Amino acid sequence: MTAQLELDHVSKHFGDRVIAEDVSLAVDPGEFFVILGPSGEGKSTFLRMIAGIETVDSGEIRIAGTDVTELPPNKRRIAMVFQNYALYPNMSVYKNIAFPLKMQFFSRDEIEPKVRDAARTLGITEILDRRPNQISGGQQQRVALARAIVRSPSLFLLDEPLSNLDARVRFSARAELKKIQRDLGQTFIYVTHDQKEAESLSDRTGVLHLGRFEQIGPFHDIYETPTSHWVGDFVGDFPMNFLPEPSGPNEIGFRTEWIDIGSGPYSAVVEVAERQGDLVSLLCRAPGGQRVFLTTLQMPTIGETIHFGLRQSLRFDAKGQRIEGGTTGALPAH
Question: How far, in Å, CA of 195 to CA of 174, rounded?
């Protein structure tokens, strides 16, 4: 099966800043692929390279098996949905959706069924006569997607389209977006710094760092078995905890939920305690000065020593790379 999107040894630099360094990637037809990373890692530039808005220094970009590296954006059969949706405030929803077809000189008779089909697919038929400032943020998202759909693209590129929504709306918007993607059966490439979006939306996630994908895979796999110290620290509501092994240069890494509090060979002193619903989140300090995040049901005293053991852990070498064959259970005290 031909990949819907292929990056083949793609590199891109802005002066000394590395955006992409010899990156290769294959995204399957119908896949929801999320590019996840902190702000400033060049995630949006990746999308612009795929779209043809930015050129690449070297390598190839292929869409549905066709080399599009040198093609302008309007020849790549892609559709972009931006962070602010880029809707025209002086136009009705209908005219916003129809606009790209009008720019391609489609006739009115050709435009009408395409617009209405897209509106029906996304459940926005009843708002076609309204203007963008008269509809909700979730509806604006659907209008932006409808405007993309009418172009019959090979690929949808979405640049943090939910970031302007408040937290309450964002939850339902994520669910709607995933359902739309499944119903369309289209390939979505989605950029975000929000791990909840990556977890809930993606079939696979690529974690971008310093111009490379540090790890690619299902989000749960990345969370449970990060390939590096950096990924473990970045991915998760709490950073992965790291402590030195009893001997040698290696470290053990463990998630908060892998900890059994109350007894065990490890200890840490409580520095910060914060109640979040039924749980208390703790920032503690191990004897060697390492930061340790714990959660418990009882509010401890600041300065109290917490003892704990581990149900499982991973091993990382001195360069911060995970060692295959992670440890399980508690290690000897040190």
Answer: 12
Cα separation, 3 vs 132, in Å, equals 36
pLDDT at 71 over 70: yes
Looking at the chain, list the stretches that DSSP marks H as alpha helix, in order from N- to C-terminal side.
43-51, 93-103, 108-122, 137-149, 167-184, 195-201, 219-224, 229-234
Q: pLDDT tier at 85 (50, 70, 90 boundaries)?
A: confident
What is the crossing angle of helices 137-149 and 93-103, to 10°? Answer: 20
Strand residue runs (E) in the chain: 5-14, 17-27, 32-36, 58-63, 66-67, 78-81, 155-159, 188-192, 204-209, 212-217, 241-244, 251-254, 259-276, 279-285, 291-296, 305-310, 314-316, 322-323
Pair 202, 216: CB distance under 8 Å: no
Q: Does domain 5-224 have CATH number 3.30.200.20?
A: no
**pLDDT-derived band of residue 109, with 50, 70 and 90 as boundaries?**
very high
Contact 323, 315 (CB under 8 A): yes
Tell me the pTM: 0.87
pLDDT in tens, 174-219: 888 888 889 888 999 999 999 999 999 999 999 999 999 999 999 9
pLDDT single digits (tens) 2-43? 679 999 999 999 988 999 999 999 999 999 999 999 988 889
Phi-psi sector, 241: left (phi>0), alpha (psi -120 to 50), beta: beta
pLDDT at 134: 92
Domain ranges of the chain: 5-224, 239-323
In order of 4, 25, 33, 116, the CA distances from 214 in angstroms are: 22, 12, 15, 42
Q: What are the distances in angstroms from CA 220 to CA 206, 224, 282? A: 12, 6, 24
**Both tokens assigned to 251:** 């470290």
CATH superfamily of 239-323: Nucleic acid-binding proteins (2.40.50.140)
CA dist., res. 20 & res. 43, Å (int): 10
CB atoms closer than 10 angstroms to residue 180: 20
